[in-house]
Design brief:
The structure holds 2 protein chains of 2 kinds. Chain A is an alpha+beta fold. Chain A has helices at residues 3-25, 46-57, 70-82, 97-102, 115-118, 160-170, 192-197, 220-235, 248-256, 268-276, 313-323, 326-336, 343-346, 357-362, 375-390, 396-411, and strands at 30-38, 61-69, 89-93, 106-107, 129-130, 133-134, 137-143, 145-149, 177-179, 204-206, 212-215, 260-265, 282-286, 299-307. Chain A folds into 2 domains: 28-142 and 300-365, Periplasmic binding protein-like II (D-Maltodextrin-Binding Protein, domain 2, 3-Layer(aba) Sandwich); 145-297 and 374-411, Periplasmic binding protein-like II (D-Maltodextrin-Binding Protein, domain 2). In chain A, helix 15 (375-390) runs antiparallel to helix 16 (396-411). Chain A is globular, with a radius of gyration of 24 Å. Chain A starts with a helix and ends with a helix. Mean pLDDT of chain A is 90; it is low at 18-27. By secondary structure, chain B is an all-alpha fold. Chain B is 75% helix and 2% strand. Chain B has helices at residues 5-36, 53-59, 62-94, 100-112, 115-126, 132-139, 153-181, 185-193, 198-226, 230-235, 247-257, 261-290, and strands at residues 38-40, 46-49. Classes of the chains: A alpha+beta, B mainly alpha.
Chain lengths: 414, 291
């Protein structure tokens, strides 16, 4: 090869590399990048369809969609944000918003969305309203309830005591377990929170100004809740035997396989049963609570947040307006098994059924996760405490006392 | 010194590679070292000087020491088993038998699969309700009431070890097999003529010839096993109660779950120095062998 040809070749190679970079510089069309989370769904075509419909109605704007599983969502977003690669908008657990807000990356929605837009939503859905600003648009709302096998259980239990009695009556060692309890880390602290809230307990002391103070899961209500879970597992043995192996997902699989008589989970599970175990007879009831204590279940919202770094807020606003029409909202709630967040959709006949009634009836007294910036640390510590007690590595009191010490230290609270 | 035109051309051609190495290897290492001595915000941006505080906090944390020790136990057991079992495998594969080619090919499979996929397959296999393993043990009557492997700390740790070994074994088997085939049969024949039995030939011929290969392969394996993220993170997520966490999974959680980038960088430095010390020790051993 002659020298000249080599230089030409090198120049050609350099040009090719340069050309690869060109699309990143962007052409005329506006593009917005959205990160959606993967729900326990029957179908996962919703976001693609929404993108198609939106792009057809808004020529000149394209939506790049990335779908991430919930269990990886938080860490993936953090990595993108840290690498200055934040998307324009993303679904997050509302409980993460304070953390992201502390990073200074969240644009309050009310700065660029009209008032009429924020008035669309039902009250309990607006969990992301913090200090008078709305930091996220509610996208999914769920309350948790008790699913039970209606062929085995005629009257659903209302209290823990009734639930234990029912579990003892129906459980058949090895083939059918009374009630599911999970001890494997998951994207949320499932089960313990149901017992904590159902016993009048809470994660933190609320300061007079409404902020969260000391950890209080080691008080009487918190300890009693974990003691009851531990007793279900170890004393009465009415749960599946391998609790530390299961998370919410595999517990749901156990119920679908006909091996669990009762499970505590959210409205999406109804669709999953219809899809994967059509013949399984089941019904839904409000979350049981400790006798003599008020009934509270967990209410969870997910929100769409818009990042400060989003270049085309007008295009994002157009997209949000479009995505929150009743047709797409109803489709979302149907596909992903969520409760309605939009008032007009809540009135739809679809939600006026025996299946949805227990979920919707619980909303007025349901309690959300506490919003603290250090939530992912708190949740991890709590998981370890719960699992330690379930595996009898520590007593419930010891586990929760240790957890509170670690949580207060991590949050810098004395 | 006058360079020819061809030699001068070499420099611009080196630039892309040098830039990539600088950007993808040198810069992150430098940034990690700096961050380890800094306080950061939740995005990892440096906001202050921490001095040795990140390291002191780790040193004072009993959980960290527990994970540190566990990482050594994890690495020691896994590498020891992989080395001995790998050698046994290689010796078997080196024997002439019918279908040897097929068996050699099958041996590669665990190594050829992507780590995360192997880890996921094993997670399902271990599942006590639906998994293949317990079903097999029960159906064959080998173990009528097998434990839920991933549900308690001890068995979960062992289960993770087995997966790591399963994935890493073929590498040893193949490298040792190549080493075995490089030993000229004449040495064995000569030893046999001198009256050496199989065991004596193994000790006097096979092992000495294989030593450099064994040292090199186990060094690589120490580094890979010490840093094996996929297996504990996917099979048990470090649980139950963090009892299967090793340094890398702990590092990941500290950085990307809790967003404590200063302490996470300190863990990275400790991991790096530990492995560097290992490697230097091994390199001395290796070059003494070869030299």
């Amino acid at each position: 090869m002659s020298m000249r040809r080599r230089i030409a070749l090198a120049a050609g190679a350099a040009l090719c590399i340069g050309l690869l970079a060109v699309p990143a510089l962007g052409g005329g069309a506006v593009s917005i990048r959205a990160v959606w989370m993967e729900y326990d769904a029957r179908y996962n075509t919703f976001w693609q369809q929404l993108k198609k419909d939106f792009e057809a109605a808004n020529p000149g704007i394209t939506v790049d969609t990335v779908i991430v599983p919930w269990s990886e969502g938080h860490d993936r977003l953090v990595t993108w944000i840290a690498g200055n690669q934040a998307p324009d908008l993303a679904i997050v657990g509302t409980r993460w918003i304070l953390e992201f807000n502390k990073m200074g990356v969240v644009e309050p929605v009310d700065t660029f969305m009209p008032k009429a837009f924020t008035h669309k939503f039902i009250g309990p859905a607006l969990e992301a309203r913090i200090g008078g600003r709305l930091y996220g648009v509610p996208v999914a709302l769920s309350a948790r309830a008790l699913y039970y096998r209606s062929d085995l259980i005629k009257t659903p239990p209302r209290t823990w005591q009734e639930m234990l009695a029912v579990a003892q009556r129906v459980a058949k060692p090895g083939s059918l377990y009374g009630i599911g309890v999970s001890g494997k880390k998951f994207a949320e602290l499932t089960e313990y929170v149901y017992y904590l809230y159902g016993n009048g307990g809470d994660f933190f002391v609320t300061n007079p100004d409404g902020s969260y103070g000391r950890c209080r899961v080691n008080d009487a209500a918190g300890v009693e809740a974990l003691q009851f879970m531990t007793d279900l597992v170890n004393k009465y043995k009415v749960t599946e035997p391998n609790v530390a192996e299961n998370d919410r997902g595999t517990l749901q699989d156990l119920f679908l396989a006909g091996k669990l008589a009762m499970i505590e989970t959210g409205p999406w599970f109804g669709g999953m049963i219809q899809e994967r175990a059509k013949s399984l007879p089941f019904a839904v009831a409000p979350m049981p609570h400790n006798q003599g204590k008020p009934q509270h279940t967990l209410l969870v919202t997910d929100s769409i947040i818009v990042f400060k770094s989003a270049k085309h807020k007008d295009a994002v606003a157009k997209f949000l307006e479009f995505a929150y029409n009743d047709r797409h909202r109803l489709e979302f709630d149907k596909d992903f098994g969520m409760l309605p967040v939009v008032k007009t959709v809540a009135r739809n006949a679809y939600f006026q059924t025996p299946f949805y009634r227990p979920f919707i009836e619980q909303l007025p007294t349901a309690k959300p996760w506490p919003l603290v910036a250090e939530w992912s640390k708190v949740e991890d510590v709590m998981w370890d405490a719960v699992t330690s007690a379930l595996l009898r590595a520590k007593s419930p009191r010891q586990a929760l006392t240790d957890a509170c010490r670690e949580i207060d230290q991590a949050r810098g609270v004395k | 010194m006058r360079l020819s035109a061809q030699e001068r051309l070499a420099y611009p051609l080196l630039v892309p590679a040098a830039a990539l190495i600088g950007a993808l290897i040198l810069y992150p290492i430098g940034a990690t070292i700096v961050t380890a001595f800094a306080t950061t915000d939740k995005l990892g941006r440096i906001v202050g000087v921490a001095g040795w505080r990140n390291f002191q906090a780790l040193a004072a944390d009993p959980a960290f020491w527990q994970i540190f020790r566990r990482t050594f136990v994890w690495t020691a057991i896994a590498v020891a088993v992989k080395t001995t079992a790998g050698l046994a495998f290689a010796l078997l594969l080196n024997l002439p038998f019918h279908g040897r080619r097929a068996v050699r090919l099958l041996t590669v499979i665990p190594w050829a699969l992507p780590y995360p996929i192997s880890a996921m397959i094993w997670q399902w296999t271990y599942n006590s309700q639906f998994g293949l393993l317990n079903r097999f043990l029960q159906a064959t009557g080998l173990w009528p009431h097998p434990p839920a492997w991933l549900a308690s700390p001890g068995s979960a740790f062992a289960a993770n070890l087995i997966v790591d070994i399963w994935i890493g074994l073929p590498f040893f088997a193949l490298v040792f097999l190549a080493g075995l085939q490089a030993i000229s049969p004449e040495y064995h024949e000569a030893a046999a003529i001198d009256g050496a039995g199989a065991a004596a030939r193994f000790a006097a011929v096979t092992l000495p010839f294989l030593r450099p290969v064994i040292v090199m392969a186990s060094l690589l394996s120490v580094i890979w096993t010490f840093n094996d993220f996929s297996v504990p993170y996917i099979v048990t997520k470090g649980g139950p109660i963090n009892t299967t966490d090793i340094l890398v999974t702990h590092l990941y959680k500290t950085a990307f779950q809790f967003l404590d980038f200063g302490p996470a960088s300190a863990i990275a430095i400790i991991t790096f120095l530990t492995l560097l010390a290992f490697s230097l020790l091994y390199a001395r051993l290796y070059f003494r062998e070869v030299g």
